[in-house]
Amino acid sequence: MPVPDKKGLKIVDVNVKDVRFPTSLGGHGSDAVHTDPDYSCAYVTITTENGKQGYGMTFTCGRGTEIIVFTIRSMKRFVLGKNAAEIFSDFAGFWRAITNDTQMRWIGPEKGVAHLAVAAIINSLWDLWSRLENKPLWRLLADMEPEDLVSTIDFRYITDVITPEEAIQLLKNKRSGKDERIKLLLDQGYPSYTTQVGWLGYSDELLKELCDKYLKLGFNHFKVKVGRNFDDDYRRCSAVRKYIGEDKVLMVDANQAWTVSEAIEWMKKLAPLRPVWIEEPTSPDDILGHAEISKALAPYGIGVATGEMCANRVMFKQFLQSGGMQYCQIDSARIGGVNEILSVYFMAEKLKVKVCPHAGGVGLCEMVQHLQFWDFASVSGTMEDRLIEYVDQQHEHFYDPCIVENARYFAPKAPGYSTHFLPETLEKYTYPNGTEWQRMIKEGLFPQPDETELLNA
Ligand SMILES: C[C@H](O)[C@@H](O)CC(=O)C(=O)O
Ligand SMILES: [Mg+2]
Fold it and tell me: Which family is it part of (predicted)?
């Protein structure tokens, strides 16, 4: 594996911060179950002996970020003192070690807070690697030899669906035409949809205003939150259908609000408004429930989308195998970071399920675009019926924010995974001592942080 020279790449510091934005004040990001999210993240910076840095994160909705921060601190032991080049030369081995420590695995394994912490660390390592190679992550992935890329993945528990040899073959099959696809990507970008119009906490007036705005910005696909009250859903979705017209595409997202039978009944009643997918209709763990919903809604032309809270590749495997998802929504800040996400793309390609990634939360649009660009260049080779979610929030806090124009993502050119925060953002929004948090707490907009949160400060 051609990895950077070892010299100076010993990891000498792993810093982690709790960074939160007060999105609940405007109802941004609100849905049927997350009624007041403060978009946040646990933000990792790793530093090497020669001063190179990698930045990574996992997304959260506010409270609880401190728990991930503690977990990342406990996991420092796997990274500190290691040489980054050695990690990259056996990345799958490193990934197995950090996810399967003989004692720590009891608090996972490969799920929940433990896996979110892994994602942040792993993402920071990929950011470092891309910076060392002076390439944006998508390009690093696209330029790797098939054997090298596949060697970063731990295939344990998924070889019944995909083996390393098959994954290598999938990449080799797509070698032809790759340069043309990369050129197309650079020239024309990748299509996206907006979720910005339909947060559940938004008024009907704002909904109309935002439909107008995003139509003018060139969007053809609109996602609306549903799942609290049927009459409200019908009214809001009918209004959106009227504003966007019959030729545009509507998706709805229930964020796990329903039982299986509620999901089926509710969606049959929304079917005349022609949503193409229902996202997270029920518990993110209920694979067979999703399969039942998919079967019941197929005659209505409604597919099931899920994955933003899927725990790991094994769950993805079963969703993909069972017909439980027609749209696979990988999330860049979940499962065990880039390495595990790559394995999901390979399974989706083999089982012919479209990947339409989840994005929107802090840094998610920035990160996931890299993965989907790589998929287009190297794995699926198509953009057909595929879209990246776009939400217009928190981009201004990054050195290298995603660029979306005319509803298309344009490929990042700067080295890394696009998750480096500006210093003033950290000064203002590190929780709870950032200057903005101190002001908002003083003004009574937010309560004093509790004991656990303070331990984090
Ligand atoms: C709490 C988040 O905002 C969630 O509603 C995001 C989501 O489901 C989506 O973007 O899809
Ligand atoms: Mg969603």
Answer: Belongs to the mandelate racemase/muconate lactonizing enzyme family. ENOSF1 subfamily.
